[in-house]
Amino acid sequence: MKPALTAAAVLCIGIGSPALAQDRDAVLRTYADIAAAAYGDSLTTAERLQAAVDALIDAPSPEAFQTARAAWLAARGPYQQTEVFRFGNPIVDDWEGKVNAWPLDEGLIDYVDGSYGGATDENEYAVLNVVANPEFSLSGERIDAKEITPALLRGTLHEADGVESNVATGYHAIEFLLWGQDLNGHADGAGQRPWTDYAAGGACTGGNCDRRGAYLQAATDLLVSDLGWMAAQWAEGGAARAAVLENADAGLSAILTGMGSLSYGEQAGERMRLGLMLNDPEEEHDCFSDNTHNSHYYDGLGIQNVYLGEYVGIDGRVVSGPSVSDLVAATDPALDAEMRDRLAATMTALSRIKIAAEAGFSYDQMLERGNAEGEALVMAGVNGLIDQTKSIERVVSALSLDGIAFEGSDSLDDPEAVFQ
Questions:
Q1: Number of H helices, E strands in the chain
Q2: Nearest-CA neighbor of 306 among 270, 339, 334, 330?
Q3: Which of 104, 108, 154, 278 is the most exposed place for a label (fewest CB within 10 A)?
Q4: What's the farthest any 2 CA atoms get from each other in the chain?
Q5: Is residue 179 a contact partner of residue 190, using CB atoms and an 8 Å limit?
Q6: Cβ contacts of residue 310 below 8 Å, gap of 6+?
Q7: H or E stretch including 142?
Q8: Separation between Cα atoms, residue 405 and residue 257, nearest integer Å
Q9: CA distances from 184 to 65, 275, 279, 363 (A)
């Protein structure tokens, strides 16, 4: 993705005052506290998923399978609220591909429907099917995969041969292993992987149930390990916290870069507008589980959390403190009111998508060509995100920050390029 929107400093209002510098430091501490809480909740819910996966593999049953699926869905809410910490914080962006890389060529991992096709010029390993193959050749090297371990997934398979869609780890690899492919097209319905894909002996469907279980456990163990590492980076004494607190202006720039880039290029563009332009259900963020409506909602909520300086944890606890909103209100109260209104409008639009999907009008259906109601719902979210990004640009200027560039998307900046 290319940088699209930029903002330059045009105001200088008391920037050197000790009181303002102290206020900015307090805002950065709130930001780091919210990151620590959200990554901590992501870790807690991933550990619950890990326990559910272990129970499924130990004693496969329909109930254990549904419990593991439910645990995966529960884990997505807190994690999606952390995506606002990307883009502005290199320590997060360099790590994020391990846990949330998307889209993925699922044939790398396990069996796929015949309609999926085979290897392509872009990805020789699109149908490698590690679950079915205890030995295979990769980049000219013979790989012993008799044991499916975290080291195999992370060190050998993830982004194999330098191909980004060779996603072997993270939430979406686990999602595929729990739901399988969504073959419903634009019809309602998620993937229909049977629980017997993890059954023992003659009850096993899909073949290689023991290896599939080993893959699922290894991927889940990695997710827990990765989230534990990131949670530690935001705790007291952690590297991410220290980097944000080191310089007030740089820290605020990181905050606003994350807000603007997620709002514009990533969510409005790559995750929403692009799928609507292509009318492609494969462009759903959580495409196997049909959970995309929740991913969009919690991404939006994460942006709002950071601006308002408040996060509500999975146990109901509230983490709050001095906020970007407070800084803007002290400089330009009208702009703060505008920013709050636009964040609220975006959340209303994303809530409507979520409510409609939960009532049976799935995100797949919304993306179908000619579905006017679906297009209106999705575009309301896109337009809300674009509008709030324009306000974020104004916030950048009001806080006398410069050199900030937000991520862009061809779907918003150069639509014709999408079809070339």
A1: 16, 6
A2: 339
A3: 278
A4: 74
A5: yes
A6: 34, 318, 319, 320, 323
A7: strand 141-144
A8: 7
A9: 21, 16, 14, 12
CA within 13 Å, CB half, 343: 21
- Residue 138 CA to residue 361 CA, distance in Å, equals 42
Residues 6+ apart with CB under 8 A from 315: none
Q: Are 134 and 146 in contact (CB under 8 A)?
A: yes
Length of the chain: 420
Cα(180)–Cα(112) distance, integer angstroms = 8
Least Cα distance to 226 among 56, 33, 79 occurs for 79
Residue with tokens 């007291």: 236
420 residues of the chain, pLDDT tens digit each: 434 443 333 233 333 444 555 699 999 999 999 999 999 999 999 999 999 999 999 999 999 999 999 999 999 999 999 999 999 999 999 999 999 998 899 999 999 998 888 888 888 999 999 999 999 999 889 999 999 999 999 999 999 888 999 999 999 999 999 999 988 888 888 899 999 999 999 999 999 999 999 999 999 999 999 999 999 999 999 999 999 999 999 999 999 999 999 999 999 999 999 999 999 888 888 999 999 999 999 999 999 999 999 999 999 999 999 999 999 999 999 999 999 999 999 999 999 999 999 999 999 999 999 999 999 999 999 999 999 999 999 999 999 998 899 999 999 999 999 888
- Which two tokens mark 359? 């009532």
Q: How far apart are CA 203 and CA 219, in angstroms?
A: 24
Say how many C-beta atoms besides its own lie within 10 A of residue 27's C-beta. Answer: 24
Minimal CA–CA distance to 87: which of 413, 397, 404, 322? 404
CA distances from 208 to 153, 205, 366 (A): 17, 8, 36
pLDDT of residue 1: 41
Counting other chains too, the contacts that 151-154 makes at CB distance below 8 Å and 24 or more residues apart are 152/218, 153/215, 153/218, 153/219, 153/222, 154/98, 154/222
Q: What is the pLDDT of residue 314?
A: 97
- Which of 60, 372, 407 is CA-nearest to residue 268? 407
CA atoms within 13 A on the CB side of 88: 32
Place of tokens 């502005």: 88
What is the rounded end-to-end Cα distance, in angstroms, of the chain? 16
Q: What angle do CA 64, 67, 70 make, to 5 degrees?
A: 155
